[in-house]
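Input.
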Amino acid sequence: MLRQHARAWLSALCGAFAATASAERGPLAAAITAYAAVADAETAAQYFRIAIQKLIKVCVHVIFSHHPQQHAAHCHSNFQVGILT
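Output.
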């Protein structure tokens, strides 16, 4: 029963998580973890990929906002090398 509704619940819970203050996200994180555990592998993988992509965006933003000149050329060249190899 839970598995067939996991995609809808994960979507709602992730939206609520993003809209909630970080200090109050604990119960939502627990609920997301629980639903990810009962979701089918494809659904869980989809939400994991989305979370990782958002984490990467945040990390890149933090790096460039703190050291824009120092890291820009280095990150760009490493990114290009990664694509070409």
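The chain is about 80% helix and 0% strand.
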